[in-house]
């Protein structure tokens, strides 16, 4: 049995160990002046709400709602964009149609002017190759005047005078017609005068009447660009 060891005979280690133990014991023991812990601060007194996790059905529902909302927004944006593009296309097509119409009109006018010019050249060429085409023109011109006293005048190009005398000399002499050679006239045409009456059967006048009969005027031809 271990006997009592007086304090003064304790070793340094034993004294420190005991003292330390005493200090720990004093620290662990509650102080008489310290108030008891509050029930509100006790962790056991705090009630926490339980954590509820979404079910698979909830997740699927939320996914479907998000998809529908996203689809609706995307649809409206796409529809607005489609309307904008459609409006721009309508403006573009209208402008294109107007441009095509103007271009078609220009092409048509140029083709018509070219055709008229070709026809005019053909007429002049035909009259130079077949001068006898002038005979029916002269006959129509001299019969268009009302007969009255005097000497009616027939103006023709010098190159056509002999042709007229050959084919119509007897008829003209019988009615007192005088043939006047006029180099200012285009070959293939004529002009007759009898008193105050006049018949213009020149090539230029006959040509003007021809093109006017199909709705073309000399002013319109003059406004067309050159180099046709």
From TrEMBL:
Transport keyword on record: yes
Flagellar assembly protein FliH/Type III secretion system HrpE domain segment(s): 85-209
GO cellular-component term (any): cytosol
UniProt cross-references to InterPro entries, sorted A to Z: Flag_FliH (IPR000563), Flagellar_FliH/T3SS_HrpE (IPR018035), T3SS_Stator/FliH (IPR051472)
A Pfam entry, by short name: FliH
Keyword Protein transport part of the UniProt annotation: yes
Transmembrane segments: none
Source organism superkingdom: Bacteria
Major location (coarse): cytoplasm
A biological process term (GO) from this entry: protein transport
Compartmental location: Cytoplasm
Entry similarity comment: Belongs to the FliH family.
Protein function: Needed for flagellar regrowth and assembly.
Name used for this protein in its record: Flagellar assembly protein FliH
Annotated organism of origin: Propionivibrio dicarboxylicus
């Amino acid at each position: 049995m271990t006997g009592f060891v007086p304090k003064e005979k304790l070793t340094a280690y034993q004294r420190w160990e005991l003292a330390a133990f005493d200090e720990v014991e004093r620290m662990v023991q509650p102080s008489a002046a310290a108030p008891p812990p509050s029930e509100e601060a006790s962790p056991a007194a705090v009630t926490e709400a339980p954590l509820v996790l979404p079910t698979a059905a909830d997740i699927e529902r939320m996914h479907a709602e998000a998809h529908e909302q996203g689809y609706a927004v995307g649809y409206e944006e796409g529809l607005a964009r489609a309307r904008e593009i459609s409006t721009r296309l309508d403006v573009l097509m209208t402008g294109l149609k107007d441009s095509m119409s103007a271009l078609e009109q220009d092409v048509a006018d140029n083709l018509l002017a070219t055709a008229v010019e070709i026809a005019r050249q053909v007429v002049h060429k035909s009259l130079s190759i077949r001068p006898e085409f002038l005979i029916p023109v002269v006959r129509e011109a001299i019969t268009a005047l009302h007969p009255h006293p005097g000497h009616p005048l027939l103006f023709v190009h010098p190159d056509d005078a002999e042709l007229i005398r050959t084919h119509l000399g007897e008829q003209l002499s019988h009615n007192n017609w005088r043939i006047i050679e006029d180099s200012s006239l285009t070959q293939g045409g004529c002009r007759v005068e009898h008193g105050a009456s006049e018949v213009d059967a020149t090539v230029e006048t006959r040509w003007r009447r021809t093109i006017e009969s199909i709705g073309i005027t000399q002013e319109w031809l003059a406004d067309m660009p050159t180099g046709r």
